[in-house]
């Protein structure tokens, strides 16, 4: 499975990347499992609050990601 992962704001600063492509051998990977994998690589993320979107839709932790999905790690934001 290939996932396109994008990082925004402070999360891009932590990862030193705006995006990356992950190649994983797993199927039935949930957002929560992916979050754990990413946090094991970028441990500083664990100290931050953020949301995760899958294909431009805010996703719950139990959502299953699929091949070619675009996963966005989004810092807190405020609107006005």
From TrEMBL:
Organism encoding this protein: Flavobacterium sandaracinum
Stored PANTHER family: MOLYBDOPTERIN SYNTHASE SULFUR CARRIER SUBUNIT
Protein name: Molybdopterin synthase sulfur carrier subunit
Pfam families per the UniProt record, alphabetical: ThiS
Family affiliation: Belongs to the MoaD family.
Gene Ontology cellular-component annotations: molybdopterin adenylyltransferase complex
Molecular function GO terms recorded: nucleotide binding
Keywords from the UniProt entry: Nucleotide-binding
InterPro entries in UniProt: Beta-grasp_dom_sf (IPR012675), MOCS2A (IPR044672), Mopterin_synth/thiamin_S_b (IPR016155), ThiS/MoaD-like (IPR003749)
Superkingdom of the source species: Bacteria
GO-annotated biological processes: Mo-molybdopterin cofactor biosynthetic process
CDD domains, per the entry: Ubl_MoaD
């Amino acid at each position: 499975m290939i996932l396109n992962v994008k990082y925004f704001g402070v999360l891009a600063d932590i990862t030193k990347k705006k995006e990356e492509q992950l190649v994983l051998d797993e199927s039935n990977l949930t957002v929560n499992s992916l979050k754990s994998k990413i946090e094991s690589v970028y441990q500083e993320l664990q100290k931050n609050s953020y949301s995760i979107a899958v294909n431009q839709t805010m996703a719950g932790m139990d959502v299953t990601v699929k091949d070619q999905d675009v996963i966005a790690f989004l810092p807190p934001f405020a609107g006005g």
